[in-house]
Amino acid sequence: MITEWIVRQGADEVVLFFSGWGMDRRIADHLSGQPASGPAYDVVSFHDYRTGQIDASAYDGLCSYRKRTVVAWSFGVWSAVHAKLPPVSHAVAVNGTLSPVDSEEGIDPEVFQATLDTYSDANRLRFNRRMCGGGDALEHFLSVQPERISSCQREELAWLSGRLQGDAGPEGFRYDHVIIGGRDMIFPASRQFAAWRGYPQTVITDMPHYPFFHLSGLEEVLECSRA
């Protein structure tokens, strides 16, 4: 996977943002603005999961922090727990599950396979509309959408498909809080509820799969998990 530092100013805490499938650093750039007052943190983005592990230099850099907080969205929720990170202090999952392709706790396997088989420039546009639910959320996503070509995104989806077939379950930390969008058409809310039974939850009723129109920054995501 690709690791890119978004903010690196020597803070005591680092937020590890695991983006969704097909993304690049642009959403992390958008989310990383920090309030004028309150605790500061560094931010590192993880995306493009065509390889499943972080490199040694990124791992060593993360080890230098007193506190490591994970914020993971969509397929990033699954990817984060398989990334072999240093010990995690706190973790928040947003619109994703640990069984991302599953008829009860994730995306229907048939829908996932159809997306993989037919993904193209035209279908990318349709997927984005479904992910955002249209309207203002779609406009917002288009302003930060990844600068990646469709064939590259499809390669990543194919890698994830192969990796999921041999998945033996979570390997790393446990999530402390989950945020669920009631209008998610990718990971339906009912399946997220099934996947996260017993976990502290925040439900945002009108939020689609793309959450960062409703949650405008990392600090807002973290505030949900502190409530």
Features of the shown structure:
Rossmann fold, 17% strand, globular, alpha/beta, seven-stranded mixed sheet
Q: What does this protein structure show overall?
A:
It is built from nine helices and seven strands. β6, α8 and β7 form a beta-alpha-beta unit. 38% of the residues are buried. The chain has one domain: Rossmann fold, CATH 3.40.50.1820. A seven-stranded mixed beta sheet has the order 1-3-2-4-5-6-7, with helices on both faces. The chain is of the alpha/beta class and 227 residues long. It is globular, with a radius of gyration of 16 Å. α5 packs across α6.
CATH class: Alpha Beta
Straight-line N-to-C gap = 32 Å
Q: H/E series, N to C?
A: EEHEHEHEHHHHEHEH
Overall mean confidence score, pLDDT:
93
* Major sheet attributes: 7 strands, mixed
Portion in helices: 25-40%
Tally of DSSP helical segments? 9
**CATH-level-4 superfamily name:** Alpha/Beta hydrolase fold, catalytic domain
CATH topology, by name, is: Rossmann fold
Strand content: 15-25%
Structural Rg: 16 Å
Q: Stretches where pLDDT falls below 50 for ≥5 residues?
A: none
Number of strands: 7
Structural class: alpha/beta
Number of domains: 1
**What would the principal axes of the Cα set say about the shape?**
globular
Main-sheet strand order equals 1-3-2-4-5-6-7
User: What's the architecture in CATH terms?
Assistant: 3-Layer(aba) Sandwich
Q: In terms of topology, how is this protein built?
A:
Blueprint: E1 2-7, E2 13-18, H1 26-31, E3 42-47, H2 56-63, E4 67-73, H3 75-81, E5 90-94, H4 109-118, H5 121-132, H6 135-144, H7 150-165, E6 177-181, H8 189-195, E7 201-204, H9 218-226
Parallel strand pairs: 2-3, 2-4, 4-5, 5-6, 6-7
Antiparallel strand pairs: 1-3
Helix pairs in contact: 5-6
